[in-house]
């Protein structure tokens, strides 16, 4: 297979790295890619959907895989399919499950999927009335894609006006605050059937102990112990299958990666949001744990038939620690020289690149999340130690990272009988 990967982040580097180990893959292209992806793929500067389709046609690409949400919402899958090119991802209409929080919430209600109580409002006055109804804490969600900056948990009344002004667009979702552990549950779908990936847990806040503003994700771990067998069944039966079934019923089948962001509450799993693609950095941890040929399941999903297809996994848990640039998640400084990647990889870790660029000074920072240090171990504790040991060998000015990725898992497992 000749494969084209759309995107330029750590998620796409991890996908490229895994696909490079697939026997059925003969060549990988990436648009636009990044310096890390360039180690395993040919990177081509194509930014628009038309340019990317031209690359797929000129290079006789057999299968295209889309990393980020923006091109999905903009209709890349519709365009490729119309041109007869196989592609993994949802159509623009199906990607509204991520692209519009209001659409997504209304859909969950129609499907009977457990989610937080909510109200969609279109003015500040309506919003204030809704806040009175819900009390505090309460959650505000901008309707449209916001690259992780569209949600604010409002702890008390005094913060409400400021947050409302920040997020109020043409539509705002106001919802009930839920308590529990968050879990990322991702499946690959051919439209009807779901092939689940392993559960992961992301770390959104920038500082240790889940403090500070939210980011795109500061780290993630992947461990089968994140979900018990009955929780897993509940998620498949009450969330994933009803979602896929209703999409089919509404003549809007969902193909590609369906990501359920879940809160595991005392009353069972509830959906915080759907995403229409793989998570970042969850994918780095997932690709590290996956074994076998990932290209075949992807091709089967694009063909619309996942029956009889399986995913294979190593037993060892994996973890990804994000090394971020100075200022992230605010305004970041770029151009800082990165050293130590080879030394870090000598420990057995793999360093996925996200915000990097080549310069005359060598590899430098070029974005907020710079690198994802990814490792696995016999148990979660060992995986964590290996990742941090490798991270210690990397340097760039202003580098910061969380020191507690995976710690919530350790705490939970310590409280459980083995
Ligand atoms: N109803 C809720 N109750 C408690 N926390 C929430 C709720 N909805 C969202 N959050 C928190 O806000 C984060 C971001 O919300 P999410 O709906 O995932 O939007 P996005 O990923 O688009 O920013 C979640 O990961 C979760 O930590
Ligand atoms: Mg989210």
Per DSSP, the total helix count is 14
- Output the strand order for the largest sheet: 3-2-1-4-5
Largest sheet: 5 strands, parallel
Q: What is the β-strand count? A: 24
Distance between the termini: 43 Å
Mean pLDDT: 96
Q: SS-based structural class? A: alpha+beta
The ligands bound in this entry are:
adenosine-5'-diphosphate, magnesium ion
**Helical content (DSSP H or I, runs of 4+):** 25-40%
- Radius of gyration over all CA atoms, rounded: 21 Å
Give unreliable regions as ranges. Answer: none
Gross morphology is: globular
- Beta-strand percent range: 25-35%
Write a brief structural summary.
The protein is an alpha+beta fold. It has helices at residues 10-19, 49-58, 69-73, 76-82, 96-99, 101-111, 124-134, 160-167, 229-249, 282-289, 295-303, 341-345, 380-391, 407-414; strands at residues 2-7, 27-32, 42-43, 63-66, 87-88, 118-121, 138-142, 151-154, 172-176, 181-191, 194-196, 200-202, 205-207, 211-214, 219-222, 254-265, 268-275, 290-291, 312-313, 318-324, 350-353, 356-359, 362-365, 369-376.
Describe this structure in words.
This protein has 418 residues and is an alpha+beta fold. The protein has helices spanning 10-19, 49-58, 69-73, 76-82, 96-99, 101-111, 124-134, 160-167, 229-249, 282-289, 295-303, 341-345, 380-391, 407-414, and strands spanning 2-7, 27-32, 42-43, 63-66, 87-88, 118-121, 138-142, 151-154, 172-176, 181-191, 194-196, 200-202, 205-207, 211-214, 219-222, 254-265, 268-275, 290-291, 312-313, 318-324, 350-353, 356-359, 362-365, 369-376. The strands form seven sheets. A five-stranded parallel sheet has the order 3-2-1-4-5, with helices on both faces. It has a five-stranded antiparallel sheet with strand order 12-15-20-24-21. A four-stranded antiparallel sheet has the order 6-9-7-8, sandwiched between helices. A hairpin with a 3-residue loop joins β13 and β14 (211-214). The longest helix has 21 residues, at 229-249. It is globular and about 55 Å long. The chain binds adenosine-5'-diphosphate and magnesium ion.
